[in-house]
Amino acid sequence: MAELRIVVVGAGGRMGRALIRAIHDIPGARLVAAIERADSGFLGQDAGMLAGLEPLKVPVTDDALVAFAAADAVLDFTTPEATLSFLEYAAQARIVHVIGTTGMSAEDDEKVFAASRHARIVKSGNMSLGVNLLSVLVEQGARALGLEWDIEVLEMHHRNKVDAPSGTALLLGNAAAKGRAVDLADHSVRVRDGVTGAREPGSIGFATLRGGSVVGSHSVIFAGDGERVELSHIAEDRSIFAQGAVKAALWAFPQKPDLYNMQDVLGLSHQ
Hints:
By secondary structure, the protein is α/β, with parallel strands linked by helices. It contains ten helices and twelve strands. The longest helix has 17 residues, at 129-145.
């Protein structure tokens, strides 16, 4: 097929720049537009130079509607509010929408699901191969070990991350809940402070750390009587998420409109 025409939204951010570099490096993909806010200081700059590449003759613009109409896919690691706006444009244009945005609410997710009737949407709290393999192992571990083992999800990110727990931590928590055949919302413990009492049997705990320039570190701890199993993933470079997002767009383009995740993209859904 011809090269997949891709739009990057939030092009001036760290992930936006990583996405531009990934599109440049991966065969079969081509950057056709780079979008920023109307008040951004990056408007008019060449997207390639912004990302540390040679000029790509793709100026940064704030006109997403026009860009989407001439594209095959959009890569979106922005904010929940921005993603909902881009969701409408992508559904109208019937293009692939890869969503790596975190911090979205249950109501937001319902809108994503509704839009998937018209667009091929790949949404995931993490686009890396390693994390998605980890989520499969967590689900299998939770299913095999049962309620006698306590589950805790520990995550750490850089000081500027604004949402907690991270999208990846929630992805892993949902994998554990799926393994136990329960709803995470009914069993998660997000905060412990003061006299909390004994740990509730069957609960799935979360602990959040923030500091420095950490790209992402996640561990799922299965704690039993007299033994402990820890499954971990450390992200050393955000380019792994960008590369996964581009591969997700390439995979989704020939699919029918629906809501997919990275396990679908990587062929891990039925493992």
